[in-house]
Amino acid sequence: MSQEMLAWRVALIVILLMGWMIAFGIALRLRGVNPNAVAERNTNWMQRCLIAGAGVLDLYFVFRAPFPVLDDLVATRESPAPWAALGLLIFSAVIILASQAGMGRSWRVGVPGAENHVDALVVGGLNRFSRNPVYLGVMLFLIGGLLAAPGPLTAVAVIVSFVGLTIIIRQEEHYLHGRFGAQYDAYARRVRRWI
């Protein structure tokens, strides 16, 4: 597969994934759930930075196909394994989609405030294998992006996202312990944080 074809396919995957996430968020809003805890005033800077960084990276992946000069601007090299990159991106997108769908009304972007509480602790679906399957999917997606477009931008995205998501996961764990108490503690003993 050519590098140009890989760039177009990555752009399509990102567009479809972002379209799903927007549609899922709208569907939750129509059901009376505000899934966007990041927009709440009590959201911390780490959540906002990760969302902004994801937006920049998504735009890069979408626009690098029609504007290959972007790769020169951020010192991106050719993918050493285009098919592996594409496979990992598709696999991780499926994990993200299945995880969000499995969380249903409990899915949130960011740590909820008191006015946006999660009603139920989700322990089924992919949450049987990971307490954070969406974040696991995001990290795998970023690694696939690094493999598809190796360079400083994607390498920094992987590192910063891992550190940031680890911080957010700890905040969410604190929230879930406070919200669900012993039920969450028992779940946390059974299921690992990542996998």
TrEMBL record:
Class of enzymatic activity (EC top level): transferase
InterPro entries the UniProt entry points to: Phopholipid_MeTrfase
Keywords from the named record: Membrane, Methyltransferase, Transferase, Transmembrane, Transmembrane helix
Biological process annotations from GO: methylation
Subcellular location: Endomembrane system
Protein name: Methyltransferase family protein
Top-level taxon of origin: Bacteria
EC number: 2.1.1.100, 2.1.1.334
GO MF, one example: protein C-terminal S-isoprenylcysteine carboxyl O-methyltransferase activity
UniProt topology in membrane: Multi-pass membrane protein
Provenance organism: Hyphococcus aureus
Residue ranges crossing the lipid bilayer per the database entry: 6-28, 49-69, 81-98, 136-169
